[in-house]
Amino acid sequence: MDKIKDSFVKPRDVSGPRSSNRFDYQKDWAILKMMEMYEIEEDFLLIMDYYDDVVIYDSATDPENISFFQIKTSSKNWTLKSLTNRKEGKKGPSLSILGKMYECKMQFPEHTLSLNFISNYTYNLKLLNGGRSIEKKRICLSELEQDSISEIIHKVMEEHQLEDDPDFIELTFFEVSDLLINNRETYLKGKISEFIEKQNPDIKYKVSVIYDALFSEVKVKNNYENDISSFEELAKRKGISREQFKEHIQVFSLDDEDQKLWEFISDSLIKEKIPFSDRLKIKQEWDKFRIDKMNYANLKLKEIIDEISKMVQPYKGKQIISLQEDLLKPVFNDYISRNTRSFYNEFYIKVIILMEFSK
Hints:
Layout: H1 21-39, E1 45-48, E2 54-57, E3 66-72, E4 78-79, H2 80-84, E5 88-89, E6 92-93, H3 97-107, E7 112-119, E8 123-124, E9 138-140, H4 146-160, E10 172-176, H5 184-199, H6 207-222, H7 231-238, E11 239-241, H8 242-251, H9 255-271, H10 276-292, H11 299-312, H12 323-338, H13 346-358
Parallel strand pairs: 3-7, 4-8, 7-10
Antiparallel strand pairs: 1-2, 1-11, 2-3, 5-6, 9-10
InterPro entries: Cap4-like_endonuclease_dom
Region (Disordered): 1-20
GO molecular function, one term: nuclease activity
């Protein structure tokens, strides 16, 4: 069996990033899924909008299995007809929902762990045991009555012009998400609050800041449009690994550390007799930057942080007697000489210098 990362394939259909409230639902669901996998200590690499709406590898470095998630919202029950319906297009009929799901397995025949259809609405399907499908949160395709399975197999074979029966019955699942369209943000913030409290019960935090930060990171990955030619590039441009998710969560536990650091820096600035007005401006920008740095979609700020981080490295080996004279002035002047049109003001840049120097 070839390794997934070494046998990199491109998706058969690249429709490009999509937007609207319906697709924001997909991003919120991805955040929920990462919290779920993180809590059960599973390794993962979650990919946004590439082979499917969401794709999850079982490892960020050397995956063996891959799960596909097609996520759609609805205002009515899903039926066998809606799951197998093909819409007419300029180039002929498009793939049905089940046809698209099976296409994912066709691209990874030896590595597909599961094919999943996720929706906010229930499923009106005929079950083998005669039960009510609309009362079930998760249904495996193998649970359907034989006539329904036979019809699905026939239609998938017809869509993909297969000669043999497709092998995906035991791998295909229909799931109802607890995430509703109308209150998705409120629901997710509640789940984030529960999650953060479990991870860091003693910290103070703002749920809205955490939500915005996580959502912006998922959005950046979802909206990346450039060509991708390897698994490593896919992971970097479109993916979030367990380790990266852990780093994001740890950022939100630094509240007390940032406060202690500020108290130390504030005392130093007072001892150096920095004017009160300047200290007040630094404090204002300090509070602003603590929130801004959580916005992973702000690529310009990330570039500035990376640049300043490199600039302060030589100073970490020096004896800093005066923060103002031995660190802030020389690094700031060096930065301004390279960036004559800085997007941020002097005190904001100096806050970044202090933060990066203190790491």
